[in-house]
Amino acid sequence: MSDQPRQVILGAHFPGVNNTTVWSDPASGSHIDFESFRKFAQSAERGFFDFLFLAEGLRLREQKGRIHDLDVVGRPDTFPVLAGLAAVTEHLGLAGTINATFNEPYEVARQFASLDHLSGGRAAWNVVTSSDAFTGENFRRGGYLEHDQRYVRAEEFVKAAKTLWDTWPDAAGEPEPFEYQSTQFDIRGRFNVPTPPQGHPVIFQAGDSPQGRDFAAANADAIFTRHSEPEVGRKFYADVKSRVEKFGRDPESLKVLPGISFIIGDTDSEAEEIAAEVRAQQVSGQTALLLLEQIWNRDLSSYDPEGPLPDIEPDTEGPSIFAGRARQVTDPHAEVAKLRKLSEEKGLNLRETVIDTQSRQSFIGSPQTVADAIIDAVQTRVSDGFILVPHITPAGLEPFVQKVVPLLQERGVLRTEYPEGATLRDLLGVPR
To answer: Which positions bind FMN (predicted)?
Structure first.
């Protein structure tokens, strides 16, 4: 067994629409201006991160027929942003989320092959699925796909894309004809972009269901997960890696990368104070009401966010008041009872209760505390690294880059320079 510590993989997530970003902070910039993306990407590259990660939204969420409180900034298309970033970075991987339900293999394979060539082998595709008819209304076949078929299509989609990427191995030669038939696709022809520098762009996946985990184990190079807490993270890590083995792959060929938020202070106590302030800023009164409406499935606009929780019971019979992605609550009555108990025990009002139950920052503390936590998590196989989600965009990575990265480098778990000519696959240590 090697005495060398396991290397920490670092990704930087440009958050898009969410309730993580503190929109009211003067340092929070545009989420559609290219300058914001450039500053964010170059900050990550100064910190020797492996890649930048972009989410994707094909439709803005609606609540009671109106655009959700946190979806008002728009969602620029992934490929133009990543292509632009390829020109202003040299080493940073460029990962984009593209839906396998509402796109076609030839188009997506062509776009990612082009990005991989333009960036010198730095492209990555986060494969996501959707059975959401609301989102599907934007497309010709909107809502047609049954929920249990979404990963069937995704797996066939990825296989089709790989088939296309493999048909033109020599840029000086000619592409071989391709033909791919499956339950979802019947395509043939010749691909018009030579095989990407990486062979195949790196494949990410973010599903958490058993079906999603199997899809990642069979097809992906990295999995983006929410499981960052030590005990739960280790169970997820062990489960996914065991699935990889069942598909005949080396467990190290799939990297497990939880998304995390962080707060850094000069001391642990200062960081805790900042974290409390950030959580309060992340949940406005309006946001608190909208999030609770997703549990109650009722219009709660008449309630005071600074007052008690609603005294009515959730509506489990009527149609959903929310359209688009939302938290899935399997037992609204049990969830409401839990919130009421928490509110009573801690003496919290409505908004404070929502703040207390929202996802908290994963790593809070001094630079040394945060560095120690990250190193311990990777060495003890909670994960292979982390995808950082700052609460300020585009400048939110800077505290981590300036204060935590040097400590990781001193401990020998993060590079001090990029290898010459390395592709993203080389940086992540996943096979071609």
So the answer is: 97, 147, 151, 209
pLDDT of 142: 64
Between CA 254 and CA 259 the distance in angstroms is: 16
Domain residue limits, the chain: 9-266+361-428, 284-357
CATH entry, 9-266+361-428, from 3.20.20.30, 3.40.50.720, 3.20.20.70, 3.10.180.10: 3.20.20.30
106 annotated as a binding-site residue: no
> Any known ligand binding at 151?
yes
| Cα–Cα distance for residue pair 110/162, rounded to 1 Å | 11
- CA contacts within 13 A on the Cβ side of 115: 28
pLDDT at 126: 96
CA distance 216 to 237: 12
pLDDT digits (tens, 9 = 90+) for 399-425: 999 999 999 999 999 999 999 999 999
Give the closest residue to 218 by CA, choosing from 265, 152, 165, 273.
Answer: 152
pLDDT, residue 150, reads 87
Task: Give the model's confidence band at 72: pLDDT under 50 very low, under 70 low, under 90 confident, else very high.
Answer: low
